[in-house]
Amino acid sequence: AHCHDLGAGGIRIGTSNRPQPIERIAHHNTIDNCFIHNGGHLHPGAVGIFVAIARNTTITHNEVSDLRYTGISLGWNWGISRNGTRENLVAYNHVHDVMRVLDDGGGIYSLGLTPGSIIRGNHVHDVARERTVGHGIYLDGGSSGVLCESNLCHDCGAGGIRQQHGTACLTVLNNISAFNGFGLGIDSERTNIFQYNIVYMDEGDTPFRDIPEWKSYNKIIDYNVYWHTS
After folding, report:
1. Which of 89, 103, 151, 154 could join 178 in a cystine, given CB atoms 3.0 to 4.6 angstroms apart?
2. Measured between alpha carbons, how far apart are the two ends of the chain, in Å?
3. pTM of the model
């Protein structure tokens, strides 16, 4: 599919209503090889590909760009209560030039409990680069049970990968974060893993988001490479 010149977003799966009977939750849908761009003209908060409460969704090989807010969004639930969202795959997508107007989002965004979900092999860049907001991959409140691996995030205004308060059991492996405001934001108070990643920095970039409380959180950070051009 080619979706462009959009008043809102491109593709939406599932609803934000909760709770729902398990048999009514959207499941086993595939979004593959789509080009979605030039959107949000009437509703700037719209997302290129938006998956709300859904399970076993596959989002692969798409290009999403030129949006005022987030490129790909997964899950819709503030907190870690179960709502049926689980085992979704976001892989091998190219997301760029998003978050051009609004804040608090990213190239790929996750919200709420979504066990068994995977964000893998995506190329995310130029996310609000000139506005010092917007993350490459943003695992927001309640995101739990997600594997985030082998992604490339560069030239993002805020961070390469951000883990927000309330997240838990996140595994971040083998990613490259380059030329972002920070490599990892780990605001989460529950156990997460950040290993075998490369953080490449320039000018004022930092390896971690500069907040004091992250140092006391349960986490495993090891076997990473940090390099600054200076």
Report:
1. 154
2. 44
3. 0.95
